[in-house]
Amino acid sequence: xxxxxxxxxxxxxxxxxxxxxxxxxxxxxxxxxxxxxxxxxxxxxxxxxxxxxxxxxxxxxxxxxxxxxxxxxxxxxxxxxxxxxxxxxxxxxxxxxxxxxxxxxxxxxxxxxxxxxxxxxxxxxxxxxxxxxxxxxxxxxxxxxxxxxxxxxxxxxxxxxxxxxxxxxxxxxxxxxxx
Length: 179
Known about the structure:
Blueprint: H1 2-5, E1 21-29, E2 40-47, H2 54-67, H3 92-105, H4 120-127, H5 151-170
Antiparallel strand pairs: 1-2
Helix pairs in contact: 3-5
């Protein structure tokens, strides 16, 4: 694992997207505590960014294993891939979503990047749907044993989604209420 993750992999710097992440999420092997394992398997979660591809990262990983004298013992296998996608900040869906949140919540959010997997990677790359991630709750709370969304946030999210839908359904821009 040290040979694979100790040194950084090259990537293109991007203010919005940031840096790639890599973590060892699963290690398994052996059958009993007093028996030398016949195999060990480790799963890495690598969220790549601009300037990185599955092919280039796999090639670099294999090179690192070779340099460490481990290429005869360790094999790299890609299990699952979701491509990184970005939605231009000046796109209509971003503008309409920001307007809708501001109208409903009373403040304009600052666009940010989600470094976790979503259906956006499929919808955008395979179908061509430009999208945003916009919803209630906190990502820190997601996939936890006590996962929840406060009801007031849930109700406001419905209003946000309706406002976005009305714009795309009618082709008209949201009119901001000013006080």
